[in-house]
Amino acid sequence: MRTALSYLKVFGWLMALYLLFAAGSWCVPDAPVKYHIAKTIERGDLADDQPRAFLPRLQCRMDNYTDALILNQAYFLRSENLVNGTMLVPRLTCERLPFEELRVAVGMDTASDKSVATYARYWHGNTFLARYLLFLWDYPTIRLLFFILSSLLMLWCGALLWTRGSWQLAVSVGFGLACSYVFMMQFSLQLSMVLFIALGGMISIAWKRRNVSPTVIFFILGSLTAFFDLLTAPVLTLGLPLLVMLALGPEGKLSKTFKEVSLNSLLWAVGYGLTWVSKWILATLLTSENSWADGLYNVSNRSGVLDDYGRWDALMANLDLMPWAFIAIALVVIVVLACRHFHKEGWRRALPLLAVALLPWMWYLFAANHSYLHNWFTFRAQAVSVAALLLASMQFVDWSKMKKKKNGKR
Hints:
Layout: H1 4-27, H2 30-42, H3 64-76, H4 82-88, E1 91-93, H5 98-105, E2 115-117, H6 125-134, H7 139-163, H8 167-179, H9 182-185, H10 192-207, H11 214-228, H12 236-248, H13 254-286, H14 291-302, H15 311-319, H16 324-340, H17 347-357, H18 359-366, H19 368-373, H20 375-378, H21 383-394, H22 399-409
Antiparallel strand pairs: 1-2
């Protein structure tokens, strides 16, 4: 357990890295960035708002809307000075869809109502990263790069979990990600960042580096999520690493395990909240905009509800997008195995896992407005719930007895 001063020191280093990362992005030469964005638009690679890929389902909707907004910000970042550019993150707007505004930006279309808009309440780490990548490649190439890297990370993560002695964890996490249509996240600038952070968190905890405390990892994961993510499925970066911690850790007293889950969740939330609030403070102090007031208003707005829907509606809107038939089949198979090879002490590990399963649903109840309106991508956080439910049910199967019986038949 570290002192508060130690965490403040870690947070100070993170803030310094974020500011350097943002400043470096602003310093990237504009010409190649604008060339690759124009090339993307000319080829029609963002010629639709939210097309559906692979399957004609809501879960397979591509978020070209936000990816075009990210490219717009990358295009106009240097239209302001270093401080205003990195703090306010300007973009061109003419009250059209983002990919249409990009066409205006690169000169393919005209508009009489052009103006500069800002989006200061987020850090926009994904925009800063996009500028580094757009210096070298166009948007379709970056999407392919993200797909390759995320696929390799998932393979590495699965292999690491398996070799660390928990094939059940590897299978559960893989099944949870598959049920959340993870392949759609891999092609998106908007959605892929939480996937990268979650995979990195799982690998870091499974690696068991002696000089890094798990509590520090969760604090850093929360901070990184606030820097790079635009409220897509942030709970992924908390829930999946928690499952790794629980599955690979020694079995201790139940009260101690729940305390560890609560502490790491709290530290993730502190890292997440501090990083987000720090952006509002910096933008308000360093620019002419009151980002603090804007941030507070939007927290209230996104966590609220309207007359035509409530918090329960937000929860159900996300539950409805999961393939529960497949999930039910998987759970029934595990229950059948448990009936034949029952492990009566399995509840000791199962209870903390079930608590982790609740995290996405708790998020939906809290951020009801955002979760209801954007359920087609926020539903992906339930990869945590599915993985946790499957892994919890596996705790009631005596796998060693099952293996001995199988070897005995041979």
